[in-house]
Amino acid sequence: MSDTPLKVVVGTALNPAQKKDLMHRLARIEGQLRGIQKLIANAAVQSDCDGVAQQMAAARKALDRSFVTLLTSAMVTHTAGAQNVEDATLRAQHLAALLDKFA
Q: Which Gene3D superfamilies does the protein's record reference (predicted)?
């Protein structure tokens, strides 16, 4: 990934605080993955695989948690912008379909 900071777009998908939280989570996960790459590169004995597996599990859990954070943030943001109950229901159904598809 380049060192150029990403331009954060203002819109209705997520509010700025939600985006900032997710961006920080993903940056930490990116650091974890770089650490795992170093562990793998330096693995010399069989027991080194235990540490790699543990770190991979932690990174996977952190990514899963980011996914949940994305969906819960989207639920709050999308339903808050609904015009009426039917619109809120449609938005919630869309998010439920995302959860069903990707979880």
A: Metal-sensitive repressor, helix protomer
